[in-house]
Every structure is written in C-alpha cells, then in structure tokens.
C-alpha cells in the first residue's frame, strides 16, 4: 500500500502577507517596492485611485481632468502579480490579532497580515470648526477639487446674472474669493484664481468684468510659505501682491458662513479688530489632521497623538513593541518631518527594505534617514520658487523646474502627454479645457445641503 | 438758445433681442448662426456647458473626460460680441408679454425678447415610472455619465471584495450589467461594457474574472436600432451576440429595484413570463421625454403635446399664432423627425434664416426641409454601422467613418487632440484614462439616498 502524504505535509507554506493601508504616495510606492518580494501584498484604500495631490488645485481651477492626476490604483498595479487591490475604508486595526478590518458600503471584511504598512494620510482640518467645511471646503481629494471647481466657475456665472439684474451687493460677494492658508496649496490656488479672472475668463462675460474679482489670501502666520527660506517668502508675497492678490498675514479666521468669512487681525495701532468679508467662494487650505487610524493605533500602543493627530513612530518608522507595523507619510510624526510627498515615498521604501530584511532573517531596526530633495511651490504662470539646501531659485527657471518634476511624477504616459497639452493650452494659450461643472455642483449641492438641513425629503433628481 | 435734442430722439434704436433657450446642438448652433446679425443674443441654459451627447457613453465608460465633450458655452461664444450667456433654468415663457423667466439658485430673472428660439431638448423618460431612475439611471447629462461611471467601475470593485469574502450571490449580481433600450445609446453602452470586462479590466483583478461579467441588452421592441434598416439591425444583433451580449428583444421592464430588474417576455410557448434578474448596475437608455417647456408652450397656444411630451410645430418650426417663436430639436414634433443632432442643427439654422428675413422685412414662413445626412451607431472597437439613403456600411470602415464624423463635431482643437489620444489609448491600447470615480459616487450616493429615505440627517461629509 502506497502511503498517501497527508495534505498538511504537502501544502506549500503560505507566503507572508503584507497589508498596505492607503493608495497615496506612501501606499502605492510601498506596493511597487514589493514587486519582486515573495509575499502577498494586499493594498486597501477607500478610493479607487492613486491621487497626485500636488496637482489637485489644477483640477479645481479647470486645467486638468481628474483622470490625469488620479489613475486607477489597480490599473497601476495590474501587472504586479503579487498585489491585490481592495476597495474599503479601514475602520479597525487589531495589533494583537494582526488583522485589518475595512468596510465597503455595508459589507465589511477582515484581512490578516504578517507585516503592515499604514499610510492613510491626512485630511483637511478646520481646527475644531468642522462646521466651516460646508462653506469653506478643503482640497484633499478629487471630490473636493470638483466641488471647488463648481463653486469657482459657478460664482462667476451667478455674478453675471446678478450684474444683469443690478444686484450689486451680490456681485461683489460672488466676485470675492478667499483662500485660507498661505502654504504652497493656498499660494497656488490664489495664483490660479488671479489667472482665471485676469486672463482666462476676461472675454467670457458681458455684464461683469472678471478682472475686478478680488482674491484674498489669509494666514494667521506672519509669513507665507512657512517652510521656505525667508527670502523666498518675501519674494512670493511680493509676486502675489504684484498679481493683485490681497495677502493678509497675522489674520485668523473666526467664522465662516454661506456668504462671507470673519477675520480677526491686528490694526496698525496694535489693537485687534474683527472684519467680515462678503465672499461666497472660500477655499480652506489651512490645516491637516491625520487619519483617525493614527489615534486608533496610538491608543493600542499607549502613546499620544500630536496636535495634528499624527502618531509618533520610532526611528525606524515602526510602532513601539510592533516591529511588524510601519507607519509612513502624513499620519506619522518623526523629528517633525513635513507632510510632503518625498517623506511618504522614502518612508515607504525604507519600510519595504526593513520588511525584506525581516523575511531574509537579517537584523532590522535601521534608522529612517530622510534625504531632503528640496521644496517647490508655484505662484502663477511663469513664476515659482524652489529651494534645495542653500540653492534658491525663483521666477521662470523655477517654474520650468516645477513643471518638469511634477510631470515626471505623473503616472502614465497618456496622462503625461495630455497634461503637457493642457499646460500648453492653459499657460501659453488662455484656455481651460476642464471647466465642466455638473448641475449637482452648481444647483444641487447647496440646495441639497439646505434641504437636508430643513428636513425636506425631496431628491435632487427632481431638479433635473 | 440752442434747442437741446430730447434724449428720446437721439437714443439709438435698441437692437432686436433674440433669446435662445438651451445650449445643446439647437441652442449653440442658433447662437453661432446669428454671429453677424445686428441683434442682441441672449442664450439661457441650465448648465454651463454645451454637451456633445453622442459621446456621453464614453465618459460613462472611462474613455473620455467630461471636459472633452462638454466645453464651456460662454467660452465657445466668448468672441461673439453680440452674444451673452446666462446660467439659468427657464421656468416660464410668456408668449403674450414676450418674456422668458429663469431661475439661478434662489434668484430669478426675466428676459424680454423680440424673437425666441426654444431648444431645451429632452430628458430621460422612465415611461411613468420615475421611481426606476434611482436604480436605473439614464444618460442625458454629464451628471448622469459620471454617476454611471461610478456605478460601473464601483460594481467591479465591490465584486472583488465580495469574491474575496466568498459572497458568491453578491458577486453574480455585481457582475451582471443590464442596459435597457436597444437604440444607438444602449447598443454603444452594451458594447463598451463588453470591452471593459473582456479587455480593459481583464488583468486588474485577482478574485474575480471580469470576462465572466454578464451584459444584458433589453428592449420591448422586436429589433435593435429601430431607426435603422433591417439588414443593419440583424447585423448589429449578431455582432453583439458574438461579443457575448445577451440580447433580449420583446422584453419589457416591469420593475427595477436596487439589486435587480424584473422583465416580462414571451416564452417559446407563446406564454408571457416574468423574470427577475439580479443585477446591481442598470442603465436606462430607453425613452426620452421633451422638456416641460413644451407643455408650457402647448398650453398657451392650445395644442396637445405628443406621447413623448413634444410640442407640434408648424412647417416653418414656429408656434401657431406666434411667428416670432421657433421651437427646434428634441422638444419639437414635426413629421416625426427623429431626435438627432442634425435635426436640431438644421432646425436652428432654418430658424435663424427666418429671423434674418424678418429683420430685413422679407417674407417668412418657409418650410423647414430636413436633409437626412444619414445615421450611424457604433457597436464596439472596430465595429459600427452607418446608413445614408440606400448606402449601408458595416464593420471597420463604418467605425472609422463614425470616429471621423464625431471628431469633426467636437468643439475645440485641444479636445479633438486629446480625444484622438484617448481613443488611441482605449482602442489600440487597453487603457481607460478617465476611470476616476469620486467617493461620493461609490460610497456616498447610495448611502445618501438611503439616509434621506430613512430620514437620517447626517451629512455625507462625515464619511470622508
């Protein structure tokens, strides 16, 4: 009689499972870095796309389509046989059981792991005033960018009608745009709003003169672009003012309502004063707060998250007592590293190096060394700033560098090609090829919110 | 003492005012046709864009971005000095007072006219079952196309998770797609769904085999493409079936629910039977009904709208008793002309000719002569059908002709260029560059509807 080997002896050992939470720079670069590893990679994210955040403001202002900056994550990883992509919002991580739980609509699923990389990023923060969000939306997702696009272009549309009807107070509020937060995102938005009003839309209206639009950039800090060298800060402020942006520093937002924003500043006499600015369209680019998963993890390992909700990680990016868990990107706090793409990308690669060492039985725990490749911010057409160590660039050359670097990081040849074309159209020509806004964005969204507030059960479909 | 001429004698005569309602083919082509006329043109539309409807299905299936097929109306007319574009939903037309009333959010405005061209088009119709719309959305607007895109790509995402969790019944319902209505739109959608499942997404998933998706095309009529020659009808049906589409004719939809659709057909024995097909994603491309403005006008002139809600117009496209009002396109009924782009475009040009004659004091009332330039419909990559008089084309040559004709009608050089690139990517390559769907579309929309139904006052923002 031939002895049959029992199934347990012949089953091949299951491969180690690496679970990645998030499809931003940290999550996607981690997955790609594992492409030759003998592991099963499962990437769980709450959107279906990898978002190239630095160019979100170009979707919001009509230059690019969402497809150009948000490729499908599973399409990017389609040829990577060891990678599975699952859509789900991670709501639970159990460090003891080594499982991740996620929800997709009403269903939930649980994914066990041997190694975990958490790269869930950060969302917009209104500093405890979430009620500001309805009227001063943030810009951290495609949803946000499309919503803002609708509000920006919609504001000019409504101003045209208001001007035709002689409703001048409405025209002023509709043609005043306020950007809160003078970091790179705020500066870029303010610059693009100027371009829109002074160049792109200059011939499109008959009753309003779009060049008369007021663009206000606010920040509680005493300078714009807090993370840049003071000389670049002052050059940027000067550029913005030359473009016509009203830059108000030391200005703190105390209230936001549907038709305006209230700001507290210090007058020339040193006394504080509060002012309400009538402005329908407001963009909040002022604060970020880490994914709630940071707190969820912090509670389990007994540490405190910082003011931005980020979880402190060890020098090697792992959680205390859990060398199998790495946290990278905007949700992690280490040596005050900034929440920029390079930190997430390099953190992801470091984590993967560590995982590969662990799998090979080599010693782990190497410190994460961040290599600062510099920072850039664009102001407007032909104007940007860049700094790498002590090298500082401004103007046209910095702008070309900015374009080149961002073009390289866009995923997909087709997207790179059409992005180049869109930039040509927008920056050399006057066009904005992605201005399309949906009815829901102009008519429906505010009506929807209002209806929900008033308890009206009608659907927005009835308006179509 | 010099006699001062009184202001009334020196004020130049105000130019005649032409108001156009609608920014589709009829409205936009009418505005453009008036570019040299000595009139003031005001175009009022409820969207900010001119929608190229024939390519909507390509936005819904991820080939094109909305910007490529929906340029900003005011951008198209920016250089036409006599044209003003106003955003507003027209809710009233007073034929006696010769005014048009429109709403933009909560404000309304009234526009007087000397000549009026009403080209407000048609919306989707569910034949009296508007409740079907929530689960079988139509495809007549950018909102619709983006919603459908979210549902289509989202269905595969949810199927992947369901398959990973062993929820096979869910997988089947999620991987079954039903298109109701076998006109050109339905046929094109069915063809693209096959392409998506068999080509584009074939490598993107690990737990589901997208090639196993079921695509069902239903119509109560006994043939597909009712307006085409029978030989083309049977060739199309054969092509679709060869691609794997389940074409069911003589099938009437009796109910639609969130997870399925109920269909009544006749069995082989001649007896009717009803069947519920589990299918989460359903597209309604089956009926249109004219803008409510048709009824509003019909009531004022004492005529009846037809079954599709269209208002019968005189031979010269005017309303009885109102030679200053022309109605063109999908909302008008004359000699059973079909609701296609060429009818709207030629109707618009005829109306403008008539208006120019009236302004020059020449006799008006010339009959509208429709010149049938033929019809085309695409089935899938490399396959289409076309007919012009007795000339009939099928296959690759018809497909090239289809591409060429549609490319010519796309407005804007940049959009034409990027559309060509997108077609190259999608039809020669396997890519879909515009697959990005928003969280609101996947997670939020159904949850939002459900919440509203259940009276839950939470906002969708809390899910982000």
UniProtKB/TrEMBL annotation, chains A, B:
**Keywords attached to this entry:** FAD, Flavoprotein, Membrane, NAD, Oxidoreductase, Transmembrane, Transmembrane helix
Q: What is its EC number?
A: 1.6.5.9
> Where's the FAD/NAD(P)-binding domain?
17-347
What Gene3D superfamilies does its record include? Answer: 3.50.50.100
Q: Does Plastid count among this protein's keywords?
A: no
Reaction(s) this enzyme catalyzes, per UniProt: a quinone + NADH + H(+) = a quinol + NAD(+)
> From what superkingdom does this record's organism come?
Bacteria
PANTHER family documented for this protein: EXTERNAL NADH-UBIQUINONE OXIDOREDUCTASE 1, MITOCHONDRIAL-RELATED, NADH DEHYDROGENASE
Entry protein name: NADH:ubiquinone reductase (non-electrogenic)
Source organism of the structure: Nostocoides australiense Ben110
Phylogenetic lineage:
Bacteria, Bacillati, Actinomycetota, Actinomycetes, Micrococcales
Q: Which gene encodes it?
A: ndh
